[in-house]
Design goal:
The structure is a homodimer of 335-residue chains. Chain A contains 14 helices and nine strands. With 335 residues, chain A is α/β, with parallel strands linked by helices.
Chain lengths: 335, 335
């Protein structure tokens, strides 16, 4: 766990800088591994990921990675309960970095009361004491900065559950480190990219596996930069949102298209054409592309880059990326 | 089919006015009914709704209505294909009002090639000739205005598939007609409500069954009013979006909270508290509530109201709610 010693958990830039290295830091305990392998051998009917915000987004990434080949449903639930159809042949994975997220604990309780198979991913809190087997994450991170740790754990659990090959995180770390070297060369410096929408609302547009990345980017800009942001998905946005730019968007919204090497050809044409049309509407869209040989590398390289963009935007605006004043205030009022 | 004769399909206001009546207009052919009852008797593993835009949103409504009691997964897919895990024990319902939506036809083809059980809902086009059993909708509507027709068909199919009681649409029509009488009395006139965000970007905020309504509202404002709009969901937005309003939202965004009588108590507190905090941030949020004795009534009464709000906003802005210039242009360029 050498990397962890290098990370100052009070410094968001520091945490995001070590994003690639954090992908390798989590290994499942052999007990838990054995449990999941046994579950796999008996067969599973589906995977239900429960969690909120920064603890939950890894669920969307894993679902996207398996979108084509998944042989059972994967669902991501962000509320106080889980659907009734989740039965003993499913696996429920509850993720709460703090271990104290009220919605997730409520859903976990429902699952445990119904004697469902549950696995937790947490660093602390009530969840650790729930009696459920768990992956123990290093403490003191911001939940959103713990994403690479959570993602590594969740992807490994999913792969074991489905009997799939285990992803080589060390290789991905290396790829992401190489991609970081391109910042400021073949893609803009994160600080420059952030400055392009400093006074606008970024609208992150993704398709397929990059939809999850677009949503993550929206949330990181919200939380780290205290800045409004939205996300949308192609092809769906082609059927409604595209009509919304008749006049009002020009000075307010900055569409940012997340692009990749692994797009279905029809989706590529839609992204190209939507970009062109937004350009003609004088929306001055941006295009962001980090080529990778794998979809998972593409997703993570873009995520790392956009995480850093959110830090740079915070710096430009003079706000502290570590704080979450509104979230804390809301929690205080609800308690 | 008396109502249909009264509707001028070239007049969006006219189509939206008859929203309540259109809920009663679709009855399944007895052949199709028998097919679905037989499928139910053999048992199903899940329901997969495929479609895009205005043809697809009914899938989210049906999913929300069954969220608590569904005994099998329901998924809504908006792309060119369907997940691999959809097998012969699922039902795939393909919805394309025009019958020519490229993404939906592609997904339907995959389903039919894999010998899956498919049912279509359409008014015309290639889908009608696909060889798949279909519910035939009245022609010449705008897909988004055909929502009550599509919804009636889809809910009936779902209820038959699950062996649930069939919804009494005539009763709901009556309730919606009564609720319409409240417009301008206990809730603002749609034109007045529209004027409250004429120069801003509305952000429709929903929770639970009203999340689908928030998304529908965003799309209707986009398409009918040619106006930007976004949507978000509580509790998830409490974990990220709430931080985005530090400074930039004040003059741009109008949060609109969709409220109901059927909220889980913890969700109610979250909506109340988020509303208060947005008020303190000077975002001047709006609150929209149409009390109904059922969740489905609540969803549809709010939908009817917000559909009309989108027409009024178009009128205020002097744009034609019937056209979809950007969507047509995009289709032209892609073909």
């Amino acid at each position: 766990m050498d990397t962890l010693k290098l990370i100052d958990p009070k410094d968001m830039r520091n945490m995001v800088t070590f994003f690639p290295e954090l992908l390798s830091e989590i290994a499942l305990e052999s007990d838990l591994k054995d449990t999941i392998i046994k579950i796999h051998e008996n067969g599973i009917d589906g995977l239900c990921f429960i969690g909120m915000g920064g603890s939950s987004i890894a669920g969307n990434y894993v679902k996207a990675i398996f979108s084509e080949k998944a042989t059972v449903p994967m669902i991501v639930e962000r509320s106080y309960t889980i659907p009734k159809y989740i039965n003993k042949d499913w696996i429920v994975v509850a993720i709460s970095y703090s271990g104290n997220t009220e919605e997730t604990l409520s859903s976990l309780k429902t699952a445990m009361n119904n004697n469902l198979r549950t696995i937790c991913i947490t660093s602390n809190g009530v969840m650790e004491k729930s009696g459920c087997q768990f992956v123990s994450l290093p403490k003191n991170f911001q939940p959103r900065a713990a994403f690479p740790l959570i993602f590594s754990a969740l992807l490994t659990i999913t792969e074991l559950s489905l009997g799939e090959n285990i992803t080589n995180f060390k290789r991905i770390t290396k790829i992401l480190q190489e991609k970081t070297n391109l910042w400021g060369k073949t893609i803009p410096k994160p600080a420059h990219f952030a400055s392009l929408f400093e006074n606008k609302i970024p609208l992150f547009i993704g398709a397929e596996h990059l939809s999850a990345v677009a949503y993550r980017a929206k949330c990181q800009i919200n939380e780290n930069s205290k800045h409004l942001a939205f996300n949308s998905e192609i092809p769906e946005a082609n059927h409604n949102e595209i009509e919304g730019f008749e006049d009002s968007g020009e000075d307010l919204i900055k569409p940012i298209f997340l692009r990749g090497n692994h797009e279905f050809s029809k989706i590529s044409s839609r992204l190209d054409t939507t970009y062109e049309m937004y350009k003609e509407l004088k929306l001055d869209p941006l295009d962001l592309r980090i080529d990778c040989s794998s979809t998972i590398g593409e997703m993570l390289a873009l995520t790392h880059y956009l995480d850093m963009v959110s830090i740079e935007l915070a710096e430009i605006k003079g706000v502290n990326p570590i704080t979450g004043n509104r979230i804390s205030e809301l929690k205080r009022r609800l308690s």
